[in-house]
Give the backbone structure.
Amino acid sequence: MTSPLDLPSPSLRRRTVLQAAGGALLASGAALPLRALAQNEPFRVGLPIPLTGPFAAEARAVQQGAELAVKEFNAAGGRRAELLVRDDKLNPQEAVTRTVELIEKDRAHFIVGSVSAAVQLSVNNATRQRKIIYNSVSQSDSINEAKDFSKYTFHECLNPHMTAGAVARYAFPKMGKRVVFLTADYAYGHEMSRGFLAAGKAFGIEVLADIRHPLGQTDFSSYFPRILALKPDVLVVCNFGRDQSIAFRQAGDFGVKQKSKIIAPLLMHSGRMVDGHEVYADIIGGTGYYWGMEESTPSARAFNTAFRAANGGTAPTDYAGLGYAGVRNLLAAARQANSTDSDRVAEALQALRSDAYKGPTYYRACDHQSVQSVLIVESKPAAQAKGKDDIFRIVATEAPDEARMRSCAELGHA
C-alpha cells in the first residue's frame, strides 16, 4: 500500500495534473496556456482542527471563522479559494497524517489551524519539511523559537508571554504584590507563569509560592488550605480548559475568591459560556478578541455583523476571530502575490498590514508572530449580563507593541 509519504511532492503532482489538463485541451483544439491554467486554480487552504475531543467547541469556532473568510474572499471576485477541513482529533500523530494528506493528496497550498500547542508543533514540523506555509491559531511560545521556526511558519494567535504580561501589567499595580501561582505542571503552564514573572519584576512582586499541579487535575482541595494560609493579595491561576474551570469553582467553594483577587493569563469565551457566571464572576484575564470590541472598533463591528448573519445570530468567539484572520490574511497575501508559491506568498504575508477584525496587526519579521492588541477582561456576574453572549467587561486594552514581546535574540533568532 502506498503511504502519503511515498507520493510525489506537491509541486510535481500539480505539474503532472496541469500537463495532463493542458494536453487534453490541446487535443480538443483549445489553446489555453499552462500558466493560465495554474492561475485559474483555486487557492486551497487546509484546516486540520480537533473536531472531536475536549476542544471541539473551539475547533468549530475556528471553522466558522475560516468559512466566513473564504466566503468573503470569493465574493470579492477573481481567483477563488477552497477550504479543506479535517479532524486532527487533538492528537499530534493524527494531525501529521491529516496534514500530509491535505498537502500530498488534496494538494492544499497552505495550512491553517491547530488548537493544541503540542499538535501545533507537529503540524509545523510537517509543513516546514514540505515548504508549505502554516499559520497557527494556537497559543504557544515554543513555535516562535528559532528551533521550531522556518520562513513558512506564521503565528496568528497571541502567545502566553503576551497575554500573561498584559494581565500582569494591569493587575499587579492595582491588586497587590503578594502573589501565589497555581500552575499546571507542563510546558504551557510554565510559559504562562514565566510571562507573569517577567512582567511582575517591574512592580516588585513577592512570590509566596508556585504550587504545581498535574495536567487534568480534578480536585484542588488539597491546595487551597495552603493558599489561604499564605494570604496572597493575588492568586494567579496558570492553567487551561477544564483544569481552569474546576480550580475557579473550588476557589469559590473554599472562600479564596473572597480573600484574594484571582487572575489568569487567558479567559476563553467557550469555556466561560459552558461554566457560567458564578464560576468566573469577577475574575480578571486576557483574551485576543471579544465581540464587545464592536463598540469602539469598526473592523470588529463589521466582522460581528457578517459572522452573526452567517451563523444564526450567534456572536463570534475569540477562536472564531482567529480562524477568520488566519485564513483571511493568508488569502490576502496569496492574492497580492498572485501565486501559490510558498516563498512568494510568505514574503507577501510578512509584509501584510491588516485590520481584519480587531484593529491593526502585522507579523514580526524575525519569528512571524502576529503583533496585535491584548484585551484585559473581567468576567461579569449574572446580575450584570444583558444576554447569553454578554459575559465579559473590557477593562483595558494593551496596544500592539513589539517591546513587550520576547525579544528575537531571546527566541534564538540572529
Notes: Confidence is low (pLDDT under 50) at residues 1-32. The radius of gyration is 23 Å. The first helix runs from residue 10 to 27. Residues 39 and 339 are 7 Å apart (CA to CA).
